[in-house]
Amino acid sequence: MKKKVLYIEDETSLGKIVMETLQRQDFEVEWRTDGATVLRTFSSFRPDICVLDIMLPNVDGFTLCAQIRKQHPHLPIIFLTAKTETADLVKGFEAGGNDYIRKPFSMEELIVRIHNLLKLKEGIRNVSREQPEEIRLGSYLLYPRRYELVSPSQSIKLSQRDIEVLNILVAYRNQSTDRKQLLMSVWGDDSFFNSRTLDVYIRKLRNYFSEDPSIEIVTLKGKGYLFLVG
What we know:
Number of helices: 8
Structural class: alpha/beta
Strand order of the largest sheet: 2-1-3-4-5
Largest sheet: 5 strands, parallel
């Protein structure tokens, strides 16, 4: 069965090239040029992955990504961006993006990134099948298969990247987790940008566990992390 790509890009010439190339690679592609129309396509198209330009008319890519992520927490999202500032890219990841490619880009690179995210999604799904339904972490309950963390006061929906990072920390709870190993396991390389992105996810997880003082994610300088669960 063909994998479905939802592609959002308002540059007509680029959009046509990308769509036709992906179709030749045996993907089924739904191409949209206006961010305001995207959410309506999900009920009929049901994509496996989303390729999303940041600079869009009516609804920008950051806002659209956050909207998609709320409704589809496990959908892989790749940002296409002409922005070069690290702060802009971090903003994209905080909105729910899984990966990014800077414009101009090669189609070979885009295709590799799409395949990598789809494989990663399938791998996480397989890992989730082997995990227990429920994991107690202090006063929290983690439901890995549902991508859900329940605190004493709320239920937190986890993104795909959240659960990937947290799964590794949980596996090594009360032990040290090597930073490079974590980067390689989740992102496939330990580049400076991916390292900065990991910092964003660690801050998010610390915030998620802030209601229980017996749970702490300690940074081991030059080494990695220690996920302490009392």
